[in-house]
Description:
The chain contains twelve helices and twelve strands. The protein is of the alpha/beta class. The protein has two domains: about 5-150 and about 270-290, Rossmann fold (3-Layer(aba) Sandwich), CATH 3.40.50.2300; about 155-265 and about 300-330, Response regulator (Rossmann fold, 3-Layer(aba) Sandwich). Strand 3 (about 100-105), helix 4 (about 105-115) and strand 4 (about 120-125) form a beta-alpha-beta unit. Helix 5 (about 155-165) packs parallel to helix 6. It is elongated, with a radius of gyration of 21 Å. The N and C termini lie far apart (about 45 Å). Pfam families: ABC_sub_bind. Keywords: Plasmid.
Amino acid sequence: MRRRDLILGGVLAAGFAPRASAQPKERVRQLLLIGNAWSDRVPPDLASPRWSVFLDELRRHGYAVGVNLAVSWREGVEDWGGPRDEWAEVMDDIRRLSPDVIVTTSHGWARALNAVISMIPIVVSALSPIEQEVISGLTRASGNITGIAIDLGPDFYSKQLDLLLEAAPKASYVALLGSERAYRGMRQLWREAKQRGAGIQEFLYSNNYEALFSSMVREGATAVLVLADANHVPHADRIARLARQYRLPLMSPFRRLTEAGALMSYGIDWSGVDRGLAVYSARVLGGTKPSELPFEQPSRYELVLNLQTADDLSLTFPGSLIAFADDMLERGRTP
């Protein structure tokens, strides 16, 4: 982290007084959200509410926007220091709002903020938080940070790859639509793809999905595997549309992508992750210390198949996948 960030963190820590744990329910709490909720579906009107599942669950626990809760949102771009320095903008938000809780779906933001701010609780849903150095262990939260640990390691992506190649047996070269940083388990995934007679290549995240898919096809991709990254969720319609445009069977960890027209998904219940974040946020808003809340891990996985997309790609799901599926989107539902 840059030196000016560390200096700024010290100023923030010195400028914020700890809030008392017992506070009147009527006081308006300040909540700062960074990033995209896992279950977000962003419509064409960008002014529409985000984090709806999270905020609905918070309301059920006694915290309602406009009543006793004020919410601010930042996109959470991790290209700090670029043309738009969102790190500086978030620091300004923190100084101005003095939020009671910061909630994020980005391990990068959680790690960076936790390093410089010790007085504000952070609730995070992080992919591989130990590997990403957000926390040191799951059984006990570290300092002022807690939340949901999403550990989707190489074995999970190997399972996805198996299911994708079972659905699209002629796929010989898989494009891995990744995150902003290289996936650390890529070497194992490459070995396992090779054992299955396929190649795999990682393409780092960019919000220019049109250019990404064009590059994938140029490199010879015949199928797509999407890494679990919250950046992809708001662009589910674009990703699914591009996959159909290039006739690429696409497997992702997000049901939302399959509902938008991708071939299939295998992943955790992402709405449940957002609800879990809300439950933890409500407990922290109510006075519970993050150090008293160990990280939770999702345990329910679901396989969703899109029958219409399979027809459009001239694919037939084998009986083994049909039997294993938790849900099948019927023909005629593809956008």
